[in-house]
Amino acid sequence: MINISFNYHEDTNTIDNIVIKNYKSFPKEVEAIVEVKENKLVISPKSVSLLQCVYGDRISINYVQDGNELTFPVIGKSSVFADQDSGNRLTKSNTVSFRGFQRDLLLKYGNIFILEEFKDNIFRLVPKVENSFDIKKVF
């Protein structure tokens, strides 16, 4: 979002003191990001679009076990999982309440995630790692 402010002088029809501020809620909008904050998940607009959800939809995070030891988090609307009443509602500001044990469990995998398609309307939460090593080796 961009905020532009200025002073307009009617008597001289001039403008001065132009200030342009660029507000970014997410570093790169090219990535679909989910971030774990204090007691909530912040879901980027691109993630909301990928999840095909709107204000009031329930969002769930589940964990998929691949083999005996590998487990990873996935996200989707509650309707794509077994229980439509599970999960928490998406707010108008694209956040989801996320507290207690469920938050602590997800933080073990990371705090900023990039969505990667897993199955129909279910996305894997891949930790965003700033280092240059291959993320696939982490899992």
What does this molecule look like?
The protein is mostly beta strands and 139 residues long. Helix content is 11%, strand content 45%. The chain is built from two helices and ten strands; from the N terminus they run ββββαββββαββ. Strands 7-5-6-10-9-3-4-8 form an eight-stranded antiparallel sheet. The chain is elongated and about 75 Å long. Residues 131-139 have low confidence and may be disordered.
Largest sheet: 8 strands, antiparallel
Average residue pLDDT: 82
State the strand order across the main sheet.
Answer: 7-5-6-10-9-3-4-8
Structural class: mainly beta
**Rounded Rg:** 20 Å
Helix content: 10-25%
What sequence of helices (H) and strands (E) makes up the elements? EEEEHEEEEHEE
Number of strands: 10
Gross morphology is: elongated
Flag low-confidence runs: 131-139
Strand percentage lies at 35-45%
The number of distinct helices, counting runs of at least 4 residues, comes to: 2
